[in-house]
Specification:
This protein is mainly beta. The chain folds into 2 domains: about 55 residues, no CATH class; about 160 residues, Immunoglobulin-like (Sandwich), CATH 2.60.40.3940. Strands 4-5-10-7 form a 4-stranded antiparallel beta sheet, with no helix packed on it. A 3-stranded antiparallel beta sheet has the order 1-2-3, with no helix packed on it. Strand 4 and strand 5 form a beta hairpin.
Length: about 210
C-alpha cells in the first residue's frame, strides 16, 4: 500500500509564505503521486486514463461467509451500503465454494437501491462441490453417489449462508460420469433441491443447478 502524505489547511491565513511553501510543494507532489497509482500521470497524451485498479478488500461484519443477495444475517452485515442513485463496485473476501475452501477476494456490484450482483468468482477448494454468484445468477454444483434408483438432493449449506436459492431454481442438469449417453432424469426440482431417477443404484453422477 502507498501512503501519500498531504498537509491540510495549507496555506494557512496567518502563516508566512516561507512557512507554507515546503508543505504546499509536498501537497503538489503528492497529488501527482496519487494520480499515478492507478492512472497515467501528467505529461502524457493518455494522462488520466486508468491503468491498474487497486481496491482494498472490504470486511464482512462478523461472518465467515456471505450470500450476496440476502446475506447470512442480512445486508447490514456487509460493510458496503447502498448509495441512492450510484452504482458501486467493490471487493469482498469470502469463500464461494465448499466448506474448507480458502477465502478469496470477489468483485461485487451494488445498485443505488441495494441490488447486488457478483461479478467474479473463484473456487479455491474442491471443484466438484461448490457455488458461485455470477451477475445475479446463482450456480450450484455437486456430486452424488446414489444408493437407490430415486434420490432426493437438497441444496446443502456448503458454508454458512450458501443455502438453497433465495428465489427460484431455473434448471437442474445431471450427468453420469461413466454413462455419457444416459444421464439421470430430473423428475422434480425446486428452490431447495431436486429428485433424480437413475438407471440403477450406486450411480455416481455430477449435477449443476442455476437460479437466483
Amino acid at each position: 500500500m502507498t501512503n501519500v502524505p498531504y498537509n491540510t489547511n495549507i496555506p494557512f491565513a496567518s502563516n508566512s509564505p516561507s512557512q507554507d511553501q515546503p508543505r504546499m510543494q509536498e501537497n503538489t507532489n503528492s497529488l501527482k503521486s496519487l494520480i499515478e497509482i492507478d492512472h497515467i500521470g501528467f505529461g502524457n497524451n493518455q494522462g488520466g486514463y486508468h491503468q491498474d485498479i487497486h481496491q482494498p478488500v472490504l470486511p464482512i461484519g462478523g461472518q465467515t461467509a456471505w450470500d450476496p443477495v440476502i446475506g447470512s444475517v442480512g445486508r447490514l452485515a456487509v460493510e458496503a451500503a447502498a448509495i441512492a442513485g450510484l452504482q458501486q463496485i467493490f471487493p469482498l473476501n469470502y469463500t464461494p465454494d465448499t466448506t474448507g475452501g480458502t477465502a478469496d477476494s470477489q468483485l461485487f456490484s451494488m445498485t443505488g437501491g441495494g441490488g447486488m450482483s457478483q461479478l467474479t468468482g473463484n473456487s479455491t477448494s474442491n471443484a466438484t462441490d461448490g457455488w458461485c454468484w455470477v451477475g445475479g445468477i446463482l450456480i450450484q454444483w455437486g456430486t452424488v453417489t446414489s444408493v437407490t434408483i430415486t434420490t432426493n438432493i437438497t441444496f446443502k449449506d456448503r458454508v454458512p449462508g450458501a443455502i438453497p436459492f433465495p428465489n427460484n431454481c431455473f434448471v437442474v442438469l445431471t450427468q453420469n460420469r461413466n454413462i455419457i449417453d444416459n444421464p439421470n432424469r430430473v423428475s422434480l426440482f425446486s428452490a431447495t433441491g431436486f429428485t433424480t431417477v437413475a438407471q440403477f443404484a450406486s450411480n455416481f453422477y455430477f449435477w449443476v443447478a442455476l437460479g437466483n
